[in-house]
Design goal:
single chain, 14 helices, elongated
């Protein structure tokens, strides 16, 4: 139409009678334009992760447009890359990574990753701390551990639940996990120390440094050979800008097996 500058993409494709009308009048460019614009609608829909209706799938088959599915998949991959904050400089490919796409699809649907998926992310440095992918991964792990604990009541699941919630940046959930069991009812000092350490870490995340210190020091009394509460004490001191004291605690942690890399991460 003369004077029309833009045209919204059609929600529905042209009917067969409309197409026949245009073809009889040799308006083939208009037919192609209609196909292209409806194809774009479907590609955008797939890129958002929205499934196609049965009608839309039939339309693709009838008009032999398999490229719509491929372009939609690539678009969805790019959407997930952005959504889960995957650094493109760290991604091995610049276009479409099938394995990563399947992994992100699982995460997006709330499906727990298996060991192979996790190894792929770690090997390619894609599970970066603080990203949406990192947070969502550990949230799924925490929820899985909670389900396992509800079924089997294994008390060793408690520090795992708490630790995973901390990584998922939900310290209140982490604290709640440590209150699922009475510490005094436990006979294993190693377990008591582990629970107190992750509880102290959660208090630290919330800025409650005095409560965090109390947990860390109590954890040391239960298991003085574990480096974890010493590392926590070093981090608490750094939070207070008591760097000399923090170094002292970190040195004690290293003596008990803490890696220099782990200490560097805490300092950062």
């Amino acid at each position: 139409v003369t004077g029309v500058q833009t045209c919204a993409l059609p929600i529905f494709p042209l009917s067969n009678s409309d197409l026949n009308f245009l073809r009889k009048r040799q308006l083939l460019d208009t037919v192609n334009l209609a196909f292209d614009r409806y194809s774009q609608i479907l590609i955008q829909q797939l890129s958002r992760g929205e499934p196609l209706t049965e009608f839309q799938q039939d339309w693709i088959k009838t008009h032999d447009k398999p490229e719509i599915l491929e372009q939609g998949k690539i678009g969805h991959f790019e959407t997930l890359i952005t959504q889960y904050q995957i650094p493109k400089t760290l991604n091995k490919t610049s276009s479409f990574d099938k394995e990563l796409y399947l992994i992100l699809g699982k995460i997006n649907e709330g499906i727990r990753l298996d060991a192979i998926d996790l190894a792929y992310l770690k090997d390619n440095h894609l599970l970066e701390r603080g990203t949406k992918l990192y947070i969502t991964y550990y949230q799924l792990e925490a929820q899985f551990d909670e389900q396992e604990y509800a079924i089997h009541k294994n008390p060793w699941k408690i520090p795992s639940i708490s630790s995973n919630w901390r990584k998922a940046e939900k310290p209140k959930n982490a604290l709640s996990a440590t209150q699922l069991i009475n510490l005094e009812s436990l006979k294993e000092k190693k377990l008591q120390s582990a629970i107190l350490t992750t509880q102290g870490g959660a208090w630290r995340d919330l800025g409650e440094l005095n409560k965090a210190e109390k947990c860390a020091k109590e954890a040391i009394t239960f298991q003085p050979s574990s480096h974890h509460p010493y590392t926590l004490m070093g981090a608490i001191c750094y939070d207070r800008h008591e760097y000399f004291e923090g170094e002292r605690w970190f040195t004690e942690a290293i003596k008990r097996g803490a890696s220099l890399q782990a200490i560097d991460i805490e300092i950062e």
